[in-house]
Design goal:
Elements (H helix, E strand, L loop, with lengths): L8 H4 L6 H11 L3 H4 E6 L1 H7 L17 E6 L1 E3 L7 E3 L2 E5 L15 E5 L7 H5 L2 E3 L6 E3 L7 H4 L19 H27 L4 H11 L15 E2 L15
Parallel strand pairs: 1-9
Antiparallel strand pairs: 1-2, 3-4, 5-6, 7-8
The structure holds iron/sulfur cluster (2 copies).
The site of one iron/sulfur cluster has 10 residues, from loops.
Length: 244
């Protein structure tokens, strides 16, 4: 189904990633972390809504005392649809031939493809499915459109309902990714618990995290740069969180 879509999910969501995802992208693309990671700030209420799975981070920098942060992928303005945002890595172009069976769905006219497909974050690999909280069952999720769709139709999500059959023969792989993602999130939550017990400044976080992963990743020091805080202004009051 994604082949006939304009990648609405890569536009409408502030995607939360793990340090593992960031290190993998940085290593594979030789890209400094600060180039593509954004720290997403939330107040206490926002953190409560976001934080079921991902533990929020605290920093000691002045002005950050009441703010909780999540690690996300940077969003930038879409060149195809000015005034709207998309994932830093999304490639987009008008379709040479409109897909008639997709009707008025934006994916009928616009193609969207991940520019880092082989290195994309684990959540992107499994979307739109999730792991049941008992950890034993992968489930298909049909994402509902977000309030951003009212601002621009480009934020419309899937052109059809997802069923198990939509995953084709990849169901085992999807469950595999979900389990790995849960493992990495749990690993990261422990790391963040340790960090939050004695929070330091934002610029010290990734060097700390890289040290925690040193048995798994060899990171070139020049790649460990500090991410920016926040995202570009969007038409909606607040970008939609990832679905629960
Ligand atoms: S990394 Fe790729 S799949 Fe994930 S949100 Fe960005 S463009 Fe989409
Ligand atoms: S919005 Fe739905 S159909 Fe479109 S790319 Fe994302 S998951 Fe695939």
């Amino acid at each position: 189904m994604c082949d006939t879509c304009h990648a609405g999910c890569c536009r409408a969501y502030n995607l939360l990633i793990t340090v593992f995802d960031a290190l993998q992208i940085s290593r594979d693309l030789s890209l400094p972390i600060g180039e593509f990671v954004a720290m997403l700030p939330r107040d206490a209420a926002g953190a409560k809504r976001f934080g079921d799975l991902h533990r929020p981070l605290r920093f000691s920098d002045p002005g950050f005392e009441d703010t909780f942060f999540y690690i996300g992928l940077k969003q930038i303005e879409s060149r195809l649809i000015p005034g709207t945002v998309r994932c830093h890595f999304l490639q987009e172009w008008p379709r040479a031939e409109v897909i008639p069976e997709r009707g008025s769905h934006p994916g009928a006219k616009i193609a969207g493809r991940c520019g880092i497909y082989g290195s994309r974050p684990m959540m992107c690999r499994a979307y739109p499915s999730f792991l049941h909280k008992d950890g034993a069952l992968g489930m298909v999720a049909n994402p509902a459109d977000t309030p951003m769709t009212q601002a621009n139709e480009i934020y419309t999500l899937c052109p059809d309902k997802w069923t198990l059959a939509s995953f084709g023969s990849d169901t085992t792989q999807v469950v595999h990714q979900l389990v790995l993602n849960r493992y990495e999130i749990d690993f990261q939550n422990k790391l963040i618990d340790e960090w939050n017990a004695r929070p330091r400044s934002l610029k010290e976080f990734f060097p700390f995290a890289v040290a925690c992963y040193s048995g798994r990743f060899r990171v070139i020091p020049e790649m460990v740069t500090t991410p920016s805080v926040g995202q570009p202004a969007t038409p909606a009051a607040e970008p939609a969180p990832i679905p629960e």
